[in-house]
Amino acid sequence: MKISTKQYKLESLSEIRYEVRIGTSNAVDYLEIMILKFIGKYGYGSEGNSDAAFMSAIAKAVLEAWEPGGLIIDLSELSYEWGDRIESVFFVGEDKYKDTPFPVATIVGENSKEAIRTLIVGLESNKTIEEIGWIYKDLISAWEYIEFKLNEYKQQNLL
After folding, report:
1. Which of 37, 43, 71, 88 is packed most tightly, with the most Cβ within 10 A?
2. Which of 109, 117, 37 is nearest to 73 (CA)?
3. C-alpha closest to that of 151 among 33, 63, 72
């Protein structure tokens, strides 16, 4: 019997790069906050489907490996114009943390903020990035949001 296979790697799905940084929460000192940064150009429309698959797989893998108490998805150096599947990255902690609240914030940059805004609120909406509530333009604001949510969950004895 002849068996024919091909080797695959997650990196073959996308040219997008990623970085992981982890810091200790100030609000809940036994929890850590992860910053998962994606860098590069996301494919336009359906051309970005493999980018979304890669980003989602990486996000799930790093959450499994380090188990943070909160996540900041940093898209500040990602160029993104359109493609619905990127939304799968925004909700990556839902499966792993079903019984425990898991705050997620997203940072957008100049080359992603308008496309992310319209993806979330629609093309016709005048709602700003700031009004969405979990999307930010800088790391400090995103970190403060995660800290606020962790403290809220701690006060409610959910952590």
Report:
1. 71
2. 37
3. 33
- CA atoms of 116 and 131, how far apart (whole Å): 13
Strand partners, 40: 78
Q: Could you give the CA distance from residue 91 to residue 7 in angstroms, rounded to a whole number? A: 29
Q: CA 156 from chain center: how many Å?
A: 25
Q: What is the rounded (10 degree) CA torsion for 120, 66, 17, 113? A: 20
Token pair of 34, please?
């992860």
Smallest CA-to-CA distance from 73 within 56, 48, 97 is with: 56
pLDDT by position in tens, the chain (length 159): 999 998 888 888 899 999 999 999 999 989 999 999 999 999 999 999 999 999 999 999 999 999 999 999 999 999 999 998 999 999 888 777 777 889 999 999 999 999 999 999 998 899 998 899 999 999 999 999 999 999 999 999 888
pTM value? 0.92
Torsional sign, CA 23, 27, 30, 34: negative
Q: How many CB atoms lie within 10 A of CB 128?
A: 11
